Amino acid sequence: MRPIMLGIFAAFFFAITFILNRSMDLAGGSWIWSASLRYFFMVPFLVLFVIGRKNFKPLLLEMKKQPGIWILWSTVGFGFFYAPICFSAAYAPGWLIASTWQITIISGSMLAPLFYETVMTEKGAIQLRGRIPFKGLGMSLIILLGVILMQLEQASHLSLMAIALGVLPIIIASFAYPLGNRKMMEVCGGRLDVFQRVLGMTLASLPFWIVLSIYGLLTAGSPSLGQITQSGLVAISSGVIATVLFFQATDLVRGDMQKLAAVEATQSMEVLFAVMGELLLLKSVMPSALSWSGMALVMIGMVLQSHFSNKIVKRKIHNVSV
Questions:
Q1: pLDDT-based confidence at 233, cuts 50/70/90?
Q2: pTM of full prediction above 0.70
Q3: Count of beta carbons in the 10 Å neighbourhood of residue 315
């Protein structure tokens, strides 16, 4: 239950990203700065925190062993995740981005065959290649059905161009985030805590953000004070608090693809938080009865996803032991 609760809290702070990114775009800010500034701001916060825990040197030693691997999967997990999300904010409202992002529930499950999971038996722990949890995926589809119902009325008023440019980058991000996160968990092998891993991935992704920011200077100019301020808020709420909470949740279920899928499913709560935030801060239109029905389905799907995952895990252990 603890990983699920951590995932829900992470979803709350992640939702701030969609709201503020849309706010910055409406104010004329470039998506390039919305993306890169977040990670630049994250570095000092995380460095101070990790140094305070006296874990900075072990992190640097770990990164020194495989610098290329760190840069590769950190760029995938952070760069190819957040840059497309910010790009989409220029073409679609926050609620559409937040709802489309829930594709990561399915994307994460589809990545299972790329990894091995640990199964405990009477003879000890064994490694098995992950399988796509098709039955559990059905529970995720309930969540996505709820998301579709929530946004059905609003999406009918968007142009085809807005849908394409607002949705396709999010699909890329939905695969990049769990792939990069899981690959780095595999590389770290439990030798680093969640704070070290988040800092390490942030540092390793800096070459990507530096190149992107140079491109931003040449094409869009420097960011405004308002965008810098809001990017700082995103860095603290989403980049530090939410990321650490989510990575802590995934670390607790590391090696178990069923439970990992359940934790990732908690991110569907971002839709509810994003809708509430836009109502309060951006004065968006109150959702219709159909949208509220979708929210109920999201909650039901989350509960079923969590319950089914735990049930499958127990059955799997029993079958292997026998």
A1: very high
A2: yes
A3: 11
